[in-house]
Amino acid sequence: MTDRQAPEVRVDPTSSGTPPDPRRWRSLAFICLAQLMVVLDGTVVNIALPHAQADLGFSDANKQWVITAYALAFGGLLLLGGRIADMWGRRRTFIVGLIGFAAASALGGAALSTGMLMGARAVQGMFGALLAPAALSLLTVTFTEPRERAKAFGVFGAIVGGGAAIGLILGGVLTEYLNWRWTLYINVAFAAVAVVGAVTVVREPRTGAGHRRLDVVGATLASAGLAALVFGFSRAATDGWSDTGTVAVLIASAVLLGAFAYWQTRAPAPLLPLRVVLERNRGGAFLSLGLAVIGMFGLFLFMTFYLQVVLRYSPVVAGVAFLPMVVGMMIGSTQIGARLTTRVAPRVLMTPGLLVAAGGLAILAQIRVDSSYAEVVLPGLFLMGVGLGTAFMPAINLATHGIDEQDAGVASAMVNTSQQIGGAIGTALLNTIATTATASYLTVHAHLITSPAAGRMLHMEAMVHGFSTGIWWGVGAVLLAAAVSFALITTDHPAGVPRDEEAAPVAA
Description:
The chain is mainly α and 508 residues long. The chain folds into 2 domains: 21-204 and 271-500, MFS general substrate transporter like domains (Growth Hormone, Chain: A); 215-270. It is built from 17 helices and 2 strands. Helix 1 (24-40) crosses helix 6 (146-177), helix 3 packs antiparallel against helix 8 and helix 4 runs antiparallel to helix 5 (114-142). The protein is globular, with a radius of gyration of 23 Å. The two termini are 19 Å apart.
């Protein structure tokens, strides 16, 4: 027998080389349930706020803090939560996050005072910052075969994009038919099911040891910087961009995050290795996600008020009115994104998907006081859902694909961080733009007020004009996301898998 050189086998760098877990699809269900709980909690309380305010008697100024307390803790601690998952174990972090989130939700549902409710919401955000990156990183290391990964990320992408809209629907139903407290109690049921699944079904693939040292300086700088950024944009939404406190907080955020980036080049065990975000395709995915979410969260704010204040829908009907977006998101993620992501390059899905989403937003920008839901709102929401679902699925896949296993948690945290920051910017920036446009409209058309009825109508027209203006800016954010995906994401291999010559050769 003649000696022949053993052939080289090219492998996906994300593969662990072990057989796939036979329970992985059941695991996906529990992971997605946990992610849904975290995502919808950003909006499920929104519709319930007026009822909670009447029950607990907190002021309009404190009403914003029920939302902001959750966003501050969640956004500020995400990177730390992702690194803890890498160090401590993703499954263990996932379970602890679920239990803590459920306990905080129960505390918030039983709140007897404003402070108790705000504290519970902050604790929710803390455990959410553990749970969210652990869930996505579990998905990343569990599904490594490209076709299965595409299907799994298609479902996960639909949850990420549609969860906020589902939260509005669920919040309306629970508030109208039960009590505002059930918008928090419902998490206990979700978490209980997910914990049982995590203990009995979910398994974390055995991999090499990850980081065992925590970058305390980096964690402090990142958490403080991100929390200041979220707080700055939240404050801008209520106090304005020129407010001294707003400016001071945003400057402090820039300084802290700049110091964090510098420290990551010097730290022996960095919290966020810069290779995670500076790789061109992955960085483009993070940036595209953040910009797209600006438009999406701005829309949620405007459409919630438009449906309930202008069209006079009840909380339940207003929530159900968002269903076309959820359906579109499911179609875009599971029927378009998941089917094509193994066949075409990521930007071939992302760029057109974002353009379709921008088109849907442009339709919604046509709203008027007497607009028809069927002619304007429904098609606009559906197209936005299809477009974002098509774009989110390959973006999340690309952002976590090919990452070193010890960095899977922090890469997953960056996905959530980009969305959280995008949501904070979208809510604050677009709300400020809309408020300014409304005030200008009232000033220009004040001479039309000839009676109380005319005054009420002008107020409605000014409000809708402000919403429309804000949505147009959202169109611009999504178009910018499309441009970023086209310019920065250059990999031409489906699903972002490296070309053969770039894959790691392993002797057969």
